[in-house]
């Protein structure tokens, strides 16, 4: 960790474009379903005036007093910085409003009471942001980058990078946190999947993201929209057990096996299906489509458009 840390407090919104190594990511959801994906970066100055090198750094998230908090600790597991994270859906489709807030006195007291404050904590108080910062209508593909810690000797800095996630909140209710791995600045790597229909293994083109609703296209059979929660016009027709998904629809018995868990916040659950027998993917370069397993966003809009 950085030897001496000072609060810098600069914030900016930028486009998410960098691609790189996998990093540990926190996914935080809020009561209205707004989701934030965040990870920590350190920036180390190679030589004065030269380029900088970005290294991912694990961060911690916790829910205290029914609110989401971001906690930074040093190599001795001492708290060196904390802030409250809040988000809600914005009026624009897919956008969210993000707020970075100082920790409350009750949370600060709780954190200080356990003897985990770092040596740089001023007056025994938890270092936090000086005031609430709000970023309205942050769109998919944009990032909020928060510079919060700096080593004045080396110029090294620590940032939090936050961006909207289009992953659905696993369960209704209050705030919740899950963890995942992501490419730095990129999108989730599609997990490997195997498809078996009526006992026969089929090649399948896969662009599905773990945890998200899905669309399975089978040539000659149309599209099967798969949801992990009950929706109008959907029928419960299968179940998920860890990395295995099974459903039965009329004469089709389908098994999908993933390289990891199908769901991101649970190991098992039901599968609800809407079948569109007339669906055929848009033709590309005159090629004939084989089986496809893809991420499906707003399922209600998809099937409502098809049945009108």
Provide structural commentary.
The protein has two domains: 178 residues, no CATH class; 115 residues, no CATH class. 6% of the residues lie in helices and 49% in strands. The protein has two helices and 22 strands. It has a ten-stranded mixed sheet with strand order 14-13-20-19-18-21-17-16-22-15. Strands 1, 2, 3, 4, 10, 11 and 12 form a seven-stranded antiparallel sheet that branches. Strand 2 and strand 3 form a beta hairpin. The N terminus is likely disordered.
Keywords:
ten-stranded mixed β-sheet, 2 helices, 308 residues, 49% strand, seven-stranded antiparallel β-sheet, mainly beta, elongated, 22 strands, disordered N terminus
> What portion of residues belong to β-strands?
over 45%
In the residues, how many domains can be counted? 2
Calculate the mean pLDDT score and round it: 78
Number of strands: 22
| Computed Rg | 22 Å
End-to-end distance, in Å? 58 Å
Strand order of the largest sheet: 14-13-20-19-18-21-17-16-22-15
* Class derived from helix and strand content: mainly beta
Overall form? elongated
Stretches where pLDDT is under 50 for at least 5 consecutive residues are 1-9, 50-58
Largest sheet: 10 strands, mixed
Helix content estimate: under 10%
């Amino acid at each position: 960790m950085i030897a001496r840390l000072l609060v810098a407090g600069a914030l900016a919104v930028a486009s998410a474009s960098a691609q790189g190594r996998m990093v540990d990511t926190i996914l935080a959801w809020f009561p209205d379903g707004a989701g934030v994906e965040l990870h920590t970066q350190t920036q180390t100055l190679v030589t004065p005036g030269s380029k900088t090198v970005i290294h991912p750094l694990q961060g911690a998230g916790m829910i205290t007093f029914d609110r989401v908090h971001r906690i930074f600790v040093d190599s001795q597991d001492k708290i060196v910085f904390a802030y409250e994270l809040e988000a809600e859906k914005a009026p624009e489709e897919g956008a969210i409003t993000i707020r970075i807030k100082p920790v409350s006195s009750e949370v600060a007291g709780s954190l200080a009471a356990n003897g985990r404050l770092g040596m740089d904590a001023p007056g025994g108080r938890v270092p936090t942001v000086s005031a609430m910062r709000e970023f309205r209508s942050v769109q998919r593909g944009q990032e909020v980058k928060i510079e919060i810690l700096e080593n004045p000797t080396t110029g090294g800095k620590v940032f939090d990078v936050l961006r909207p996630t289009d992953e659905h909140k696993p369960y209704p209710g209050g705030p919740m946190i899950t963890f995942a791995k992501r490419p730095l600045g990129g999108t989730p790597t599609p997990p490997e999947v195997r498809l078996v229909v009526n006992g026969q293994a089929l090649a399948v083109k896969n662009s599905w993201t773990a945890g998200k609703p899905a669309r399975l296209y089978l040539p000659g059979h149309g599209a099967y929209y798969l949801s992990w929660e009950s929706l109008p016009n959907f029928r419960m027709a299968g179940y998920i057990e860890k990395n295995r998904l099974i459903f039965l629809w009329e004469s089709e018995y389908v098994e999908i096996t993933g390289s990891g868990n199908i769901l991101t916040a649970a190991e098992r659950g039901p599968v609800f299906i809407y079948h569109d027998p007339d669906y055929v993917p848009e033709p590309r370069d005159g090629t004939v489509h084989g089986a496809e397993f893809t991420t499906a966003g707003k399922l209600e809009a998809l099937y409502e458009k098809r049945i009108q």
